[in-house]
Amino acid sequence: MDGSIEQKLQELEAEARQAVPAAADAAALEAVRIRLLGRKEGRLTAIMRTLGELSAAERPAAGQAANRAKDVITGLLDARDAELAAATEDGREAVDLTLPGRTQWRGGRHPVTLVVDEICAIFRTLGFSRVRGPEVETDWYNFTALNTPLDHPAADMSDTFYLPGGLLLRSHTSPVQVRTMQAHAPPIRVVAPGMVYRRDPYDASHAPAFEQIEGLAVDEGITFVDFKATLAEFARRFFGADAEVRFRPSFFPFTEPSAEVDVSCLLCDRQGCSACKGTGWIEIMGAGMVDPGVFEQVGYDPERYTGFAFGMGPARVAMLRYGIPDIRLFYEGDVRFLRQFA
Amino acid sequence: MNISVRWLKELAPGLKGTPEELSDRLAMYGIPVDESTDLGAPLGDVLVARVVEVGRHPNADRLSLCVVDAGGAEPVQVVCGAPNVRSGAWYPFAPVGATLPGGVKLKKVKIRGEESQGMLCSPKELGLGRDHAGIMELHGEYRPGEPFVAALGLDDHRLVLDVTPNRGDLLSHLGVARELGPVGEAGLEIPPLPGSAGTPAPGWTRGEGAVEGAGVRLALEDAEGCPRYLGLILRGVRVGPSPEWLAARLRAVGARPINNVVDATNYVLLELGQPLHAFDLDALGGAVVVRRARPGERLTTLDAQDRALTGAVLVIADAERPVALAGIMGGQASEVTDATTDIFLECALFDPARVREGRRVLGMSTDASYRFERGVDPEGLERAALRAAELIQATAGGTVDPVALDAQGGVWERPVVRLRRARVRQILGQALEDEALAGYLTPLGFDLTPVPDGFDVRVPGARSYDVTREIDLVEEIARRHGYDAFPSVLGPYRPTAVPDAPLEGLEDRLRTLLAGLGYLEARSAPFAPEEDGDVPLAKPLSAAESRLRRALAPGLLHRVEGNFARGERNVRLFELGTAFLPGGADGRPLEETRLAAAWTGDRHPPHWSGTAAAFDLWDVRGVSARVAEALGLSVAAAPDATEAPGWLEGRRAFVLHATDGAVCGWAGEVRATAVDAPAWAGTVWALEVQLTDAMAAPRPATYCPVPTQPPVERDLALLLPDGVSAAGAEEVVRSAAGEHLEAVEVFDVYSGEELPAGARSVAYRLRFRAPTRTLTDEEVDRAVERVLKRLREEAGVERRG
After folding, report:
1. Is the predicted ipTM greater than 0.90, yes or no?
2. The whole model's pTM is what?
3. B567 touches A: beta carbon within 8 Å
């Protein structure tokens, strides 16, 4: 067989293998088909025309080779045609699905709100409703009714903001206890989240206004055992089933016996670290049995009713939970900070 | 309260345990230990050594060459510069390799050509005093090479106790020893004082109100402020530095030694908790009067402050003028000095509230006032007075006058508190045996007498301030039983009688809404500068926080500025909080719960498919409508710009109003002057709305039948002349279209030159539907004709041709 014809057919096939898959759409593919196989100007037709120059003995083999090349090229064209048809089904363009999608701005609750909500939700399952009270208070609600005479050093436990007329900004949410008991008869089970105020300038762990959650349970028959069990149950649900809880005696004028409630340090598993100041324990709330003197102030019979109260700082808890080193971050409205919790 | 563990163990000889164990026990009794310091640790490398031989340094006149036996196989050579070094004496010795307090590490050195293998130390080098003149000679029996700390009893531990304000009895070593000792009160011992010839035993001249003796007249003019006052007189004392053991004791608890008289009173304060004061007897002129200060009186106190006194301040006075602030601080004129020989020693009981009032009026607090405020043991006065006199005698010499004075306002008796078994069980939820109750209370000094329902408990003086009621005893029992020893079993409970506060639920729904719309919740202190608040604080922390805010939006706008400063151009914030307005009940400010939001930037996050559009006024109206809907309010164009809050651009404002028309909130474009914005920042938008319990009331959805008939729609492009609002035209449409009009919506607004001057085109789509039949085109066309006629007649509105 004439080497030059076979060589030309091979070149043609090679060209087809490049040009056919490169055709981007049906029109391009048709142009390729016409260029290679067109009946008038096509390259294969041109090669076929040269068959006449061969001897009769050579002609059949060359003809078969040309037909085989035609089959191969037609196959390539058909395959590409099918590909393009699939991609442009319903007349739609192919798309790059790796591109990013269109989104909405993400909003969210403040990290302290997240903690407040979680704490209140746990107490709701323990039967506590959610109440609130005013932020401007009288001495009576903030101190006297809470068994804290102003001439006692216990009144110095926090530095209070006063308004010129002698009113004050509540230094704890405990006045809500008093207001709740004045307005309702037992059984009482409430939590009261809200802002409290102390004359502490801003630093990494202090702010002059911060959140507190007060809790109160009063009824006949509530004992120190119920007190421990309820708060331990809360701590396990909030900090995890493995959290250990410890009750230490302490002093608050409006509870007796009083306790500080500690949980095992979440970060070091009680080995001692900077978060727990090496003690393995983290103080999470002040609590205790309601002092009978408070019941007397609100007109409850202290011989009949007993109860417990507790207070905790959700901002401090949020700092622990999220590893936030500076309380001021909560109050600066920096969107780079806030959107981490959205 | 700083505690020396060594001192503690002297007072309670049966007390065992490492400082760590003691700290843990204190914590579980309710007295957390804030700090624990091994006082011997910095001197751990120092040994006791004997100087065997003192020779002259060949190359220096002032240096000597010592041969020192420090317990090693061979004596070592040490160069010493102290003039007082002598052979045969014992000294603290720091060998080569030792580290001294302050971190100096000793190396083998050559001093003027002679090798020195360590250092003989002065008190200053050991951190034991200021004396640097000579090395510290030790007087006692030692073994060469013995650790210095153990040999001198310096192996002590300082614990810093966080004592709660109810426990004044724990502000002394004796009180802490009682709390911690294995048998409490019964195991306490007052240790002998070094150098003492025994406790003085003067004869007491006692009397109510006033007594006289030993040349002094003592009068309690204010027996309420001072229920008891003891006075002892010491003559012929020599004021000077305290002996080392006393100075070391004080240093161990962080106190600074001053002189033997002052140190003695401090020692007794720290040991027994009784504040004492030593006067120079000559300065008193034979009269000691306890009374209220008179208007106009002044006193220069020991801290050199000249203080103006008021009737609130209780003073010690001579015949004419105050000489000391009772229970707070002495006066300079009667201070014990190096020249003092005769002392009047005061050991008194002052009323806690009076001391507190006085020291607050004067703006001061001292170790003495701190203890008096928290309650000093009324039964411990005599012991404390005699111990202080004994210690002064032991360290400063002198004789105690045989006549001692004791003026009393009345006889103090131990209060009796009934403790009922049933009450213990009612509070603690656990029945405790009588033996257990007695076992907890007796060691603390309580005296129990059985009665049918429990005990009558006589309360010792030291605890008479915090234990006055049965519940106080119950707490003592719980504390000593151990809180962890009580079971923790969750029992049944009755459901709460208190409903949720309506605003708690409303705030929760608003947070969900705003967060869903892409807003981030901010929180802030409600303080504001003067221009943004009506309610002032009495003592603000700063001018920028001198008032309570009257609105939330200015604070949020300030936070938007902060974000601009950090380069953020897309900011969306909301806050729920309180605004404080004048005019509440009973002279209180009015507290309003509010929701505010402030936002700026683009409506959507950037996307490659196109450029983002910035928020505009119609987003404000849209968001306001969502908020209003949640609150049962409506949004309308602000009727009168002058009422709008200052931060709002009045011509670009909406109001949120209740069904009765009352304005509850505002929204709109923030005035450019209200925000400090960089040039690249976009317009800032804000809203603020008041929240009330009524808005929180549930508004359940109402069902209306789903339509079964097809609607018929008509589009009307109307030419609204100047002065006719879109809402005004819509109102006419609604009233004229008849009963089958179902909805009207604006779908296009257009202004252009081809329209008549002042007019704009607003296109409405009207949807008609009848509930039970299909409307005909003719019916709808007639309705549209009616609408057009009414528009033309009532508003001059034509259909756009």
Report:
1. no
2. 0.85
3. no
